[in-house]
Amino acid sequence: MIGTALASAMAAFAAGAVFALAWPSGAGARRLSLASAFAGCVAALVLGVDMLDSGISWTWQSQAVLQPLGGVSLRVDPLGAFFVAIVALTGAPASLYALGYLRELDGRLRGRAVHALFNVFLAGMCLVPLADNAATFLFAWEVMALSSYLLVVSDPEQEGAAAAGLWYAVMTHAGFLALLAAFVMLAQNGPLEFPAMRAAAGTLTPAAQSTSVLLTLAAFGSKAGLVPLHVWLPRAHPAAPSHVSALMSGAMVKLGVYGTIRVLFDLMPPLSPWWGGAVLALGVVTALTGVLYSVAETHIKRVLAYSTVENIGLIFVGLGFALLMRAYDSGVLAAMGLVVALLHTLNHAVFKSLLFLAAGAVVHGARASSLEALGGLIKRMPHTAALCLIGVLALAAVPPLNGFTSEWLTFQLLLAGARYTAPSLAIMLPLALAAVALVAGLAAVSAVRFFGIAFLALPRTDGARDAHEAPLTMRAAMAMPALACVVLGLVPTLAVTQLTAVVSDLGLPMGQLDTGLALSLPLIGSRLWPIAIAALMAAAAIAAVLGTRAARGRQVRIDAAWNCGRIAQSPRSEYTAAAFAEPLKRVFTGFYRPTHEVTVEVHPVSPYFVRAITLRADLAPWMEQAIYAPVVRAAQRLSAQASRLHTGSIHLYLALLPAALLVLLLLGRWIR
Amino acid sequence: MTTVVLAAAELLFLAILAPAVVGYVRWLKARLQSRRGADLFQPYREFRKTFAKGMVIADTASWLFHLAPYVVVASTVAAAVLVPVFSASQAGDQFGDLFALMALLILGTMFLALGGLDPGTAFGGMGSSREMTVAALTEPTLAIAVLALALTAGSSSLGVITGTLLTTPANAIGPGHALAFAAFLIAMLAETGRLPVDNPATHLELTMIHEAMILEYSGPYLALLEWAAALKLTLLLTLAANLFVPWGMATSVGAAALAFGLVVVVAKIAVLATLLALLETRVAKLRLFRVPELLAVSFTLALLAATSSFFTR
Lengths: 672, 313
Known about the structure:
The complex is a heterodimer. Chain A is mostly helical. Among the domains of chain A are: about 270-355 and about 365-520 and about 575-585, no CATH class; about 590-620, no CATH class; about 630-670, no CATH class. Helix content of chain A is about 70%, strand content about 5%. Chain A has helices at about 1-20, 25-55, 80-100, 110-125, 135-150, 160-185, 195-200, 205-225, 235-240, 240-265, 275-295, 300-325, 330-365, 375-380, 380-395, 400-420, 430-455, 460-465, 470-490, 495-505, 530-550, 575-585, 590, 620-645, 650-670, and strands at about 60, 70-75, 555-560, 595-600, 610-620. In chain A, the strands form 2 sheets. In chain A, strands 1-2 form a two-stranded antiparallel ribbon. A two-stranded antiparallel ribbon of chain A has the order 4-5. In chain A, β4 and β5 (about 610-620) form a beta hairpin. Chain A is globular and about 85 Å long. The two termini of chain B are about 35 Å apart. Chain B is an all-alpha fold. Chain B has one domain (about 1-310). Chains A and B meet through α15, α16, α17, α21 and β3 of A and β1, α3, α4, α5 and α9 of B. β3 (about 555-560) of chain A pairs parallel with β1 of chain B, so a sheet runs across the interface.
């Protein structure tokens, strides 16, 4: 079953790539290739769900390709299956969405390339969680990285796409190098198979262990977007087509989470508590940084990209907690931490792909991507607005949607940790809890701002005024994750029971779980019954509606809003995105370090006659500049030095070739 | 079955009492300011009047404007169900805990803010922005205060917290309890938009927060929003009273015990409301950008409470 599902998924992706490139008509290529991608995702979902249900692992090996590096080795275990399911869950709506979203590209080669790469990207992401040796893992990882890079730079008309691609390529390849080094260290001259690495990991020296943990965190953190390695996310997401952004945020960054879990929880023995604390702190810093910038950004996709950074932070809070508890030998708490992290991974994949698809529909419909240029879309795009509202409510972690359940569990987790562990954590866990609460509150601000400024009030530009609703395929595609948000929010036990199988496979059994509709985990003294809360709210709302209907025998008058006596209401008087975030920018001024520059142009006759006032407010992320500017400068200096070799003399180049060969040979001999 | 009936009775009690609490605070403030003041039934009359009036809806408003009052009411009612009022048997524990209550209140706040943004007026946006800012900054304080309570009780369920305190009153003497109480009270002022964070008596001023968001609402919608705000105040006062001073709650289902519990909880709410009126008469409104400082004080208190509960458990 699993073998068939995997083979059909890969065959579908391959067929999709071929259709995209070879089918005679552009429209046919788009339809067939995206249908193949959709079918592939369905097959991958079948694989994931079947594995999680049956619990029987499946392996497959071949020496036909990648032979010198150890061949291809695949293994489906519950953890991998879960992540394959996440890829499939975000991939399927994205494929359907692209059907309507990229119709304009039918006549162009670029459209074909995007569809083909999309299939390759999906295939790479499905393979990463199944790899069972370093060679397969790195190969799939690189397929995923390269195809997504090409998708990021696929739109040459997009401003800044090339620069975004460069950032992305550099970060992802630095991560690749770190990953390679981590695998080599973990293998300790043994074979680069995961089972062998698992067996050998216990014998690592402390220094080697610390180095490999650091390298792992750097490698997967650069993919997941841990601060300060998150810099590519807010650049690459706006440049990529929206369905690709949805896949990148929903699935690809999650594979960074997957890698971290695979190495730190599966391959490596329990680490010292120090590492758990460090990962937890890193998660908190990432979440706070992400949410604070997501509150202040005005480009809609950058708002969402920073919110992805925030959510990755929350996931790593769970992971750090699990690492910490594993070190303290509290198996059940560690298992809970991992379950919460994985549940949030799933929840975030669902609602963030929904939001990116909605953002794409907004850009598509209103031809603008800055919040300041939007407004009033709820009237022109009511369906997109309703679906997006579900997404932002999930993002803000309010009941009864799925974001809330993982948020609630994170709170419970930190509470249980504070209750059952050493007093040495007496300050750390409450502070982490406070930070998570602040993140939740700020996420609500960001959600209100995102939805309120883009969809409500009056349109701020002509593009927003003439916006059109998204085509049916796009709306249907958005409805899929929206439905998942609601279902996972109302019945979280659907996912949680599967996740206990995943963590017990990693050697962290969690004990018997409630499998009813209410959520309660071991060691947690409280329950959450989301479907009952939803029913309560529905009952109260219905009562209020009926009461209002009964009372409203009198007229409802539609009239102009109160504008302090101004007669005409114009969008110039409504709150902007920048204004909405202003109080928080002032409160966290030490974090943002905003720059203000006011120039007043006065009449030559008297300084009291002001002609114009211009205000430039900028919010450049100073931490990024502090860290990356020296690196960029050093790289530029090095390349300037290297370019001095490029004299144009062919003799010099020919002389350099054997010199390089000699150096390599000597190096090889020395290493041997 | 009895627990369900009790829970429904408690909800009904809070729902009916809510306008009276607002009326009482207003009356007492008026007396303290040497005014005669309307009696405590005035909010009921206002509710009846506004509820029966026609509505004026802004021509720029969308369907969200109509949805928001209902969501605000629904989330506040759901939050009220979780609150233990006069009986220690707590059906609300089946639904959720203090963290769920916080999230429900945030849901209401979000829809208030969205409803404020929808007509596209400057006041609405201003109120929304400020309300969300204050709400976000209050979250960590509330979370830590909840943590401090939950650490001693072993659960964040409201019924368990009050129940533990009823059976082991010694817990209430610890420093953690008092600190958490103080922190909670400050956070509550911010949550419910009272002085010194927001002035509930102001209307059409640049300093207003809550009133600015509901400026465009009229008729039944306004009545619902005003009632939801009153319910939120009442439920948070009840919460403060019962989480920190649960004595007097009925531990059995006898009529005498329940009647006694009812009287005691009204007395407790009255004491807290009196304190609120005194405070609102004494202090001036803080500048918006000074509010974080107030919340920082509250946060520090809550953190101290949480850490001290590690030593007393």
